[in-house]
Amino acid sequence: MTSSSKRLSRLRHLLSNVQLDVHLAAYTKVSPKWRQMHMLPDFTRMYYIREGEGALEIDGTVYYPKPGQLFVMPAGVRQSYTAISEETFGKYWCHVTTRIGDLDLFRLLGLPYSIDVDETDRVTDLFRRLIEHAGSPVYTSVLLQKAALLELVSYYIERSLPAADAGPPAPAEPRLAKIQTVLAHIDRHLERPLTVPELAELVHYHPNAFIRVFHEIVGMSPIRYVQARKMEKAKRCLADSTSPVASVAEAVGMETCYFSRLFKKHTGLPPSRYREMLLRTGEAEANG
Hints:
This protein is of the alpha+beta class. About 50% of the residues lie in helices and about 20% in strands.
């Protein structure tokens, strides 16, 4: 597994714990008096500019969005907006919560504040779905609205991050930088036991504080995460080799009996049965 693949795998772990909510969504042609200064909101604004001009200030930098750009103004970042002429913004917009633990997703990943939309119809449809489901009496509308927001956020992340083999950018959130250091250390040392004190010392945390911060960001305890990563490596070993189970256990730093119990707990099958299942599946596909 390459280092870039490991980075992307860690990013998937983080994104699997994202919590999304939509508070407001609409299309608005703002007035020439549109202006609000020096806010520090606890929600994230998303503006999809369709026409006109105006100014946004985000974290001390002034932007002049153009039609076809999608802007994000993250929660917890000082921000302002103002009209600058009679040719005001016409924009789709929403106020949302996008969090992993107690951290805003966009700040946590260090994403840029804007992207150029290259799929106009798709993004327009996503905003229309946010608006439609906000006013719907159907009891599943909240799920449909979240589904639209998930797709919109996914689109933004995909257009913001570098090429797939480069992995995510350096995080803007200091705690995430520390936790990513820990995650990389875990991936480099799956062949041996890893303890909470060792991981905490790596980033100069007290073990109790480390457990709390790790859980807030990753969504599970350090030990549970280590076990999950070891089981992922074990599954790859079982799929890619004919090594005995004892050798696979050694490759993830465990005694064979304990490894077999833990593997069954995670997958529902003992290691040998898991390998047999993979072989049968491969043969069936080959003969399909």
